[in-house]
């Protein structure tokens, strides 16, 4: 009832081929250390920023996802491919693909909530200048548990996590790139909130911090258990974080504090519309 998860906090450069090569190398390393599920960060093949999305965008399937499919098959693992800028029908999306141990595409999640924020004097960012939002939930099954996907800003929306919980997900994975303003304030807090509210595991995967980039990521890829405890956490540098996801512990916590069966569905509800 336990399996090993690896989060690859990749240093992302401006050279796509280098990013792909290093990502695949670290995936192989993680699999050699027994990881069954391996996750890459948001925007792992390209610098993060509205000015880069169009230049680096690819079709799916395309060069980056082909490499992910091949390395998932070679290592016989489940690979959560962080996210890449995707071009489809003249629109751009921030998209996460998931590949199974046979190299097949299991899920494709387009970031649902676009990151449009303005914190005066600190940070202003508008993904909607270039990106279109996805319109669906994304889940996939593994022999270990069902997994729900979100990308970065999606983590702020508690309803999305709640629906994944209702649908039987026991692990939520959010590739994300919080920044130096929102990272220290909310990155860990949001993960712990999603985990304890829904009594499931939450993992986030950030790029490594690059002080010279136009958008500086917070880093600190993290895993939180259903009790709300941080059980693994990176610093700011490139690294691979390993942790064992124990589904027996999840079942025990749900038994001890049975909030899921004690919800007052006669008074309130969160529903999936499509």
TrEMBL record:
Gene3D superfamilies: Carbon-nitrogen hydrolase. GO terms for cellular component: mitochondrion. Signal peptide: none annotated. It is an enzyme of class 3 (hydrolase). SUPFAM superfamilies: Carbon-nitrogen hydrolase (SSF56317). CDD domains: nit. One of its GO terms (biological process) is glutamine metabolic process. Residues 3-247 form the CN hydrolase domain. Keywords: Hydrolase. GO terms for molecular function: omega-amidase activity. It catalyses: 2-oxosuccinamate + H2O = oxaloacetate + NH4(+); 2-oxoglutaramate + H2O = 2-oxoglutarate + NH4(+). Pfam families: CN_hydrolase (PF00795). InterPro entries: C-N_Hydrolase (IPR003010), C-N_Hydrolase_sf (IPR036526), Nit1/2_C-N_Hydrolase (IPR045254). Its EC number is 3.5.1.3. Transmembrane segments: none annotated. Belongs to the carbon-nitrogen hydrolase superfamily. NIT1/NIT2 family. This is omega-amidase. It comes from Dicrurus megarhynchus. The gene is Nit2.
